[in-house]
Design goal:
Blueprint lengths: L5 E5 L12 E5 L4 H6 L10 H9 L7 H11 L1 E5 L1 E7 L7 E5 L3 H7 L4 E4 L1 H10 L1 H4 L3 E4 L11 H12 L7
Parallel strand pairs: 2-3, 2-6, 6-7
Antiparallel strand pairs: 1-4, 4-5
Helix pairs in contact: 2-7
Length: 171
């Protein structure tokens, strides 16, 4: 199997949040597909959008604008823990030379809201680079990535719902 080349990746799209955001979900860093699409969770097999649509009983958003509107309407802020890093493809396990994302502007707007980590790598990097500044404990969610094959869609949705639902806005 051919080894993927190392690439220096810098986050190229803005966090999604506003003063009505009730939770902040942090991923690790944009995948190759997300970088190509210039928006979060761009891989068609990533379950992020399906899980959130199911939890909130909303139609599955398709376009970037629909996804932004969906997140803001449901009180969900999203960003990543990494501003830039060296990475091979989309492999979280290859990440090195991390420059953490600054969360202060988001939290200044949203207030001290619960922070969730989409997967173990996001959780570990947040603990290492951001917790000392935010002082907000991160709640770990199982990764929505297609690489997390041990978690089928229903199990993933159930796990996310049990942790997120208490904080989300009701329609």
């Amino acid at each position: 199997m051919k080894e993927l080349a190392w690439e220096r990746v810098t986050h190229s799209f803005l966090p999604i949040y506003n003063e009505n955001s009730k939770v902040l979900i942090l991923g690790t860093a944009p995948s190759v597909k997300s970088r190509e699409n210039n928006f979060y969770y761009g891989h068609p097999q990533n379950r992020f959008w399906r899980v959130l649509a199911e939890i909130t009983k909303a139609p599955l958003p398709q376009s970037i604008e629909e996804k932004k509107d969906f997140l803001l309407a449901k009180g969900i802020a999203i960003y990543d823990v990494i501003e830039s890093c060296d990475i091979q493809g989309s492999s979280d396990s290859s990440i090195r030379n991390v420059v953490p994302a600054k969360l202060s502007e988001i939290l200044k707007t949203t207030g001290k809201i619960p922070i969730f980590g989409n997967g173990g790598t996001a959780f570990g990097l947040y603990q290492k680079h951001q917790f000392h500044e935010t002082r907000i404990p991160m709640i770990l969610l199982p990764s929505s990535s297609p690489a997390n094959a041990a978690w089928n869609l229903q199990r993933l949705t159930d796990a996310w719902e049990s942790k997120l639902k208490p904080y989300l806005q009701n329609d």
